Amino acid sequence: MYASADSSSSFFWDAIGEIKYLGADGDSLGKPHILLGQLGTRIRGTLFNSVGYYLRLSNGVRLGGTSKDAVFAAGFEPVLASTRKFVGEGAKTYDSFEGYLRYAPAGDWLGLTIGREFLKFGTGFIDKLIVSNQNSAPFDFIKLDLSYKKIKYSFFHSSIVGNDASGNQLPAGDYTFEIKAKDISGAMVNVVTNSFGTVTGVNFENGLSYLVLNDGRNITLSEIKSIR
């Protein structure tokens, strides 16, 4: 690691490494298992007490498991799901990078950020209603933040690319999803896409009312089908 700082600027550099194992054991999933390794570096710092920058570069490799196990892992790791060669072409390696350049004057009343990274946006205790770093890969964006006393305003413009199960990029359009379930004997089971929850609170945001459920989800009144 290397670090340097003075009255108006700072610079930090370090290396990163990770070993991760993912596995499952179930009637429908089988017994997929995969071992992933990753090495990379990070650079971050400030300039003139108002400009911040960050860059993260890494390269990963599948150390264990098959290409079929890689598809399984992509269901839990957004970075893997967004890497077509890893999911769709059976490659053992995958790359990841993120970074940003941010300007914020004294007082932090203004923040202007351009870059590529994970973002959280929306309400929710765990996953956010709109964008969450739990279920999206790093993506390109421009973000504006304004703050005055207790008033805060945030806006960002970005594009999130959707991929199919093989990692191929999907065209823009309207999509639907279908759930198919089987019991332990392999027979099809009827399923519905409704969910249930206990209301624990109410949120008001942008002129809309949201019910807060016990699992942290926020839903609008129009999404309610029945009350029991």
Produce a short descriptive summary:
The chain contains three helices and 13 strands, in the order ββββαααβββββββββ. The chain is mainly beta and 228 residues long.
Q: What does it look like?
A:
- The structure is a single chain.
- The protein is mostly beta strands and 228 residues long.
- The chain folds into 2 domains: 2-162 and 181-191, no CATH class; 192-228, no CATH class.
- It contains 3 helices and 13 strands, in the order E-E-E-E-H-H-H-E-E-E-E-E-E-E-E-E.
- It has helices spanning 67-74, 78-81, 84-87, and strands at residues 2-5, 10-23, 33-47, 51-64, 93-103, 110-117, 139-148, 151-158, 181-182, 188-189, 199-205, 208-213, 218-220.
- It has an 8-stranded antiparallel sheet with strand order 1-2-3-4-5-6-7-8. The protein has a 3-stranded antiparallel sheet with strand order 11-12-13, with no helix packed on it.
- Strand 1 (2-5) and strand 2 form a beta hairpin.
- The longest helix has 8 residues, at 67-74.
- It starts with a strand and ends in an 8-residue tail after the last strand.
Task: State the main characteristics.
mainly beta, 8-stranded antiparallel β-sheet, 3-stranded antiparallel β-sheet
Number of helices: 3
Strand content: over 45%
Structure class: mainly beta
Strand order of the largest sheet: 1-2-3-4-5-6-7-8
Q: What Rg, in angstroms, do the CA atoms define?
A: 22 Å
Low-confidence stretches: none
Mean pLDDT: 82
How would you summarize the topology of this molecule?
Elements: E1 2-5, E2 10-23, E3 33-47, E4 51-64, H1 67-74, H2 78-81, H3 84-87, E5 93-103, E6 110-117, E7 139-148, E8 151-158, E9 181-182, E10 188-189, E11 199-205, E12 208-213, E13 218-220
Antiparallel strand pairs: 1-2, 2-3, 3-4, 4-5, 5-6, 6-7, 7-8, 9-10, 11-12, 12-13
